[in-house]
């Protein structure tokens, strides 16, 4: 099952529960616009390379479209389409006034220099600047991009449109960014994990956590959860997994990673396991925070966690999702679990439109409030309708978008 097909599978399950009209389904499911652009870039060795970039604008019924920009060699139209649709439901679930979009460039971000990355970014802006903007479509960092890429993006866009920092979010604070944006997704994962533990009758101090992925999202989630007295027993990155049943000192691990080129390779305070073995550890909570599609029909029967929190996008394949649901293992779905980033992006956008700087305490307080409200609505609906948390989250999102379209006379 391809990425977009998998999202449509979940969409249809929720649409059936909502008894959504047949003529409205394609309007909600299919993207409004798909853009493919050629990006000619001169590399540092003077080669002229032609890259392919994408921007999929899925739905704008509830406001300007919002979604990240990723640089990864596996980026393609199907993946971008699926992630754009997930953004539509994600923004609706947390009830922020955005639609959904996603973009990317098919390039290995680890194999290019900083100057090459800057050229790629500016060329991409040249190709799409007429189709984006603070009232149209607002990109943000994603896999392979960061706050510096967003600063280049704004600088290039401003050459066409004049001063307008709200065109992207995830910018450096020095370039009209917002405090707390970098930690937002991981912090949101931590906030919602604690709430979900309470709902399944588990105390944080007696809960063990395994996190696949120790990048920006995984490391901030690990920090939040360890400060909340959870025992983080396993973490991982590209070098492999690291397991200590007595708990890992997350601040020490983060410091080790920074000192070793953002790699945990050789981390001495834990035994080595593979990334696959980490997924199968006997823990209270499993948090896939790296790649999608890591829990499949091939390993689902070996998953022992009591709760799964999807910090990554689509880490559980639909066939595995069905098995885990039948086993009674709750899965906090990606469109809710990792919505902290887009929520704080909304705060940044609002800050830019108002030209009024938010402080970190306000950001954290508003984030906690908005995610908590969304969590309670999804959990209560799941209990009321006897559906999974994923189906309930999609139901909340789809219903809000459908209502917006009906009220605007679009359906």
Q: Can you characterise this structure?
A:
The chain has 411 residues and is an alpha/beta fold. It has two domains: 20-170, Rossmann fold (3-Layer(aba) Sandwich); 184-332, NAD(P)-binding Rossmann-like Domain (Rossmann fold). Helix content is 45%, strand content 16%. The protein has helices at residues 3-18, 25-29, 77-93, 114-128, 147-161, 184-199, 216-227, 250-259, 275-279, 318-326, 334-337, 340-354, 360-385, 389-407, and strands at residues 33-42, 48-59, 65-66, 69-71, 99-105, 137-138, 208-212, 231-237, 240-243, 271-273, 285-288, 307-309, 331-332. The strands form two sheets. A seven-stranded mixed β-sheet has the order 10-9-8-7-11-12-13. Helix 13 crosses helix 14 (389-407). The mean pLDDT is 96.
């Amino acid at each position: 099952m391809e990425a977009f097909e998998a999202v449509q599978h979940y969409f249809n399950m929720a649409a059936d529960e909502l008894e959504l009209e047949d003529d409205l389904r394609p309007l909600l499911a299919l993207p409004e616009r798909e853009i493919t652009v050629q990006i000619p870039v001169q590399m540092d060795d003077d080669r002229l390379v032609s890259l392919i970039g994408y921007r999929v604008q899925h739905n704008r019924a509830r406001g300007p479209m919002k979604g990240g920009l990723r640089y990864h060699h596996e980026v393609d139209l199907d993946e971008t389409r699926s992630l754009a649709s997930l953004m539509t439901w994600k923004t609706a679930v947390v009830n922020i006034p955005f639609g959904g979009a996603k973009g990317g460039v098919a390039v290995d971000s680890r194999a290019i220099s900083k100057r090459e990355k800057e050229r790629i970014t500016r060329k991409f802006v040249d190709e799409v600047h007429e189709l984006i903007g603070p009232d149209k479509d607002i990109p943000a960092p994603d896999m392979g991009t960061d706050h510096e890429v967003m600063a280049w993006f704004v600088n290039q866009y401003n050459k066409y449109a004049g001063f307008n920092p709200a065109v992207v979010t995830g910018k450096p604070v020095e370039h009209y960014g917002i405090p707390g944006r970098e930690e937002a997704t991981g912090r949101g994962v931590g906030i919602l994990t604690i709430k979900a533990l309470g709902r399944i009758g588990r105390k944080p101090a007696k809960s063990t956590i395994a996190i696949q992925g120790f990048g920006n999202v995984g490391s901030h989630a690990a920090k939040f959860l360890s400060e909340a007295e959870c025992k983080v027993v396993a973490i991982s990155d590209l070098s492999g997994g690291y397991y200590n049943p007595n708990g890992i000192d997350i601040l020490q691990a983060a410091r080790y990673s920074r000192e070793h080129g953002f790699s945990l390779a050789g981390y001495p305070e834990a035994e080595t396991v593979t990334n696959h073995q980490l997924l199968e550890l006997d823990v209270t909570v499993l948090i896939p925070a790296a790649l999608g599609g890591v829990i499949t029909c091939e390993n689902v029967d070996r998953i022992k966690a009591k709760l799964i929190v999807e910090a990554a996008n689509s880490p559980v394949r639909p066939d595995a999702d069905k098995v885990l649901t039948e086993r009674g293992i709750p899965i906090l779905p990606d469109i809710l679990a990792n919505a902290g980033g887009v929520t704080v992006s909304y705060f940044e956008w609002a800050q830019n439109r108002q030209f009024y700087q938010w402080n970190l305490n306000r950001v954290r307080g508003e984030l906690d409030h908005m995610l908590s409200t969304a969590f309670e609505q999804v959990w209560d609906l799941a209990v009321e309708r006897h559906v999974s948390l994923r189906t309930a989250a999609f139901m909340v999102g789809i219903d809000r978008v459908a209502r917006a379209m009906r009220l605007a006379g679009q359906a």
